[in-house]
Design brief:
This protein has 123 residues and is an all-alpha fold. It has five helices and no strands. The chain is elongated.
Length: 123
């Protein structure tokens, strides 16, 4: 095992704030576009989820928990390669997790299908 001073000197040789700033400057425009697109998609999903909750008559106190379910499903489905039956099974696992926490399964299923267009998994 090498000594501490050698490790520190090698790290300093590899890393410099100038190089990090140059790298960030090169990819900043693309990072900004992707972030903006993600935020638009996230806000749209939250609005659609709130519409499902409003139509289901969910008490205001529980909205945050249903939004947490929707955000987890968003994270699972947005920008990932997971889709089809695998996504349906993963969404069902999330639904059961939140159902065990006291949320209504019919409302969770409505969010899954109406907002994310994910069907129930095949048996």
């Amino acid at each position: 095992m090498s000594d501490v001073t050698r490790r520190i000197s090698r790290w300093k040789a590899k890393y410099s704030p100038e190089i990090a700033a140059q790298t960030t400057a090169r990819i900043y425009a693309d990072m900004t576009e992707r972030y903006q697109a993600s935020m638009v998609a996230l806000c749209t999903m939250e609005t659609e989820t709130k519409q499902v909750l409003d139509a289901s008559g969910i008490d205001t106190m529980y909205i945050v928990f249903y939004l947490d379910f929707a955000r987890q499903l968003f994270r699972l489905s947005h920008g990932r390669t997971i889709s089809g039956p695998t996504l349906a099974k993963e969404a069902q696992v999330l639904l059961e997790k939140w159902q065990s926490r006291g949320l209504r399964p019919d409302v969770l299923a409505a969010i899954r299908t109406d907002v994310f267009s994910v069907p129930a998994p095949a048996p």
